[in-house]
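Fold this sequence, please.
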Amino acid sequence: MRRRLLASLCVSASLLTACGVVPGVGGTDRHTVTVWLMKDSASRSFLDRFTEDFERDHPNLDLDIRIQEWTGIGEKVQTALEGDGEEGPDVIEVGNTQVPQYVDGNRLLDLTLESVTKWGKEEWLPGLAEPGQRRFHQYGIPWYAANRVVIYRKDLFEQAGVTAPPRTREDWLAATEKLNTAGDQGIYLAGQDWYTLAGFIWDEGGDLATEDGGRWEGALDTPAALRGMDFYRRLQSLGEGPIHADEEHPPQAGVFAAGKVAQIIAVPGLAQAVVRQNPALKDKLGFFPVPGKTGAEPGAVFTGGSDLVIPRNTDQRKGAIDVVAALAGAEWNTDLARTMNYVPNKAELASAVAGEDGVAAMAAGAAQGRATPSTPEWAAVEADNPIKDYMTRVLGGADPATEARRASERITQALSLSRG
């Protein structure tokens, strides 16, 4: 049945193309494909190389790449998706967790067929692929990923007798306890770093929220989620991170740069900010993946990054699909990863960044990457984040089960209210 359906779709597409019905397909005229990419996602040299190569391989297409600012991009994308498509973008880079809000209203092109038959959907990093899905249909195509690792002081590890980065959670706790001496913090972990908490919860088999019959409910009060919070509490206690603030208040790069912290959990690029503030640390920083429950694989981490989407109102459908295929394909995806120190969209491509210690650690963790609940209503949860309040209360000594239940109820309420 599945084979017959695919064949039917292909025949239908061929007939439409032959008749000139599909916009942007057929003919000898040149067409322009407008691509919106976010500022600093790709270097100018990368974009120049890609444009030259793509236009050489597609002589009837011109690329018009327009760089966008992250600030205010949500409203701008929504407006483009609701327009007539004549002046709008044909391909858009969006944050991976933003895809669900754009899927609503049937405003994105369904790319399931291409994903399954041509693009190796089953090999994509789950933290990028899953937010791009809705009811088993693929709308967001993974482009690149970034996730947290442990940045550590190699000299402080050596002084404490920790000879190798830990691979399991229990080893991590033991090592951090050794490091938490002589005026040094074993780890600086702010009390409201909820993305890091999410990884520990996922590792235990829990989640932030779960769906049942189209209804989302908070899930911080499950036994698995409570175990994740308990590990966070034990780790956080081996340092002096403020329990009433997140990792940006104060910025943890500055705290680390002060020279009395052995570890932080952050994206590898933060090490550059640390060294700028304290050049003496230039050759003293190392990286390892967030440890898992066993040494078999790294711990789960929140995967940030970008997906590529195509507005349903595009008048250059074939050209837009060709652009996505090229950008997300192995050649240009690995080129981007090497150029920008990103994680490629497939675990099998991780060797492309193996020469960079921080990115290699990030790529190892990305294989266990996850994303926030795939519902457009999740933005309402983050707007008045009950997870942060929950963490502060537990770290302050409140009963975890009671606070988890309250936070879960607030998550459920936020998801229900925003759904209307």
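The first helix runs from residue 2 to 19. Confidence is low (pLDDT under 50) at residues 1-26.
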